[in-house]
Design goal:
two-stranded antiparallel ribbon; about 5% helix; disordered C terminus; Growth_fac_rcpt_cys_sf
């Protein structure tokens, strides 16, 4: 196809089909080729012309800049007469070329109705209006960190303020003071009491409503007091400091609401409190007594157990290496025929894994010799649903 044509008739020597030209081009029916519209034009019906309302932003269709007589006689000459709007103007369809329509000035420019032009806003100003009496622009909205002053220009907000676009320069808007400050009656930021993150302004002074984490709010004077040791949040009630949450490995003592280290058998007691233990937080070789919320020690040589509240004792489910669980859920050494055995089954007197440098002797039914260790009784393992990997993991 020819240049600027989407679709053409190949049998017609590359002539472009109707309505198949690129944007800003139109079909010349005499030559069946795509020809450019007038400059600054989006669409046209004839080459080098422009259709009404198809000018680019900032340009106006101007058929009247030529004389009326010429316009009537030679219509096509004036149809493509495109002239830019006033500088910093988006639309000038009503007032015409070189001017601007009301409300159509670019951002940070104001419309001057005296001459239909656009005038720049003051420095640091986001939006402004034009004062026809004073023949100047006046700022109506400054950048967020500035405010409008009496001269309708922009100046800084008060100290410790994020934004003053509503209350004006030297002041601050509600909710825009920095952390640790609050808005006073004169619309400036007042500092909160020490160690306070949020406060109100009452009776010519600031009163704290929220303290930093390791400080608690005093109910008498609305200031912040330090929490007890190892306490991350607290309250001050009736001249008494009470911890509400302790740091890790500490729990609250109910008697005085201070923090005390968890028992050596417990990893965490922050929820249950001092002298107790949180669910699932007992150390290895201990089991939680749900009734007392304390950790009970497992039987000797036991690494994993549960607490039987009915029998009031711990019952082992896994012993250390060279020990096995007995019928009464305690641990007994792999001895006698099971000597030199790392993993054994006490009930059936069978060694599952001999110690290093020992191997199982089927005839003697014990571990002996000076060779590499060997798993015994593959059929026994299979019958009891135990994998070799599980046995190796058990002794690690």
């Amino acid at each position: 196809c020819g240049d600027n044509c989407f679709n053409c008739d190949v049998n017609g020597a590359g002539q472009c089909n109707v309505d198949e030209c690129h944007d800003k081009y139109t079909l010349d029916t005499a030559t069946n080729t795509c020809e450019a519209c007038a400059s600054h034009c989006l669409d046209c019906s004839q080459p080098n012309q422009c259709d009404p309302d198809k000018c680019l932003l900032g340009y106006v269709f101007d058929a009247y800049s030529c004389s009326r007589d010429v316009y009537k006689r030679v219509l096509t000459i004036c149809d493509d007469c495109l002239v830019a709007c006033a500088q910093n103007c988006n639309v000038c369809n009503y007032n015409g070329a070189g001017l601007c329509d009301e409300g159509q000035c670019s951002r940070r420019y104001a419309y001057d109705p005296n001459n239909s032009s656009c005038v720049a806003c003051p420095d640091d100003c986001e939006d402004c209006s034009y004062n026809t009496t004073r023949s100047t622009t006046e700022c109506t909205q400054c950048y967020s960190s500035l405010g409008v002053n009496n001269g309708q220009t922009c100046s800084g907000c008060c100290k410790d303020c994020h934004s003053c676009i509503y209350n004006g320069a030297g002041k601050c808007d509600r909710g825009e003071c920095h952390v640790g400050y609050t808005l006073g009656p004169d619309d400036t930021c007042k500092e909160c009491p020490p160690n306070c993150i949020e406060c109100d302004y009452n009776n010519d002074k600031t009163e704290c409503t929220k303290c930093y984490g390791i400080f608690g709010l005093k109910d008498d004077d609305k200031t912040c007091g330090a929490c007890p040791g190892h306490c991350v949040s607290c309250e001050h009630v009736n001249n008494r400091t009470e911890c509400t949450h302790c740091e890790d490995h500490y729990g609250i003592k109910q008697e005085d609401k201070t923090c005390e280290a968890c028992d050596h058998s417990c990893k965490s007691c922050t929820t249950s409190g001092a002298g107790k233990c949180d669910p699932g937080k007992c150390h290895d070789s201990y089991a939680l007594d749900d009734d007392s919320e304390t950790c009970k020690q497992c039987p000797d040589h036991c690494v994993r157990c549960t607490y039987n509240s009915t029998a009031n004792r711990t019952e082992c489910s896994q012993c250390v290496t060279k020990y096995t669980v007995t019928a009464n859920q305690t641990c007994e050494a792999c001895s006698g025929p099971l000597e030199n055995c790392d993993v054994c089954s006490f009930g059936e007197r069978v060694c599952v894994l001999c110690s290093l440098t020992y191997t199982w002797n089927d005839t003697m039914q014990k571990c002996n010799g000076e060779t590499a260790s060997l798993l015994h009784g593959g059929s026994w393992l299979t019958a009891h649903g135990i994998t070799v990997a599980a046995v190796i993991l058990l002794i690690m």
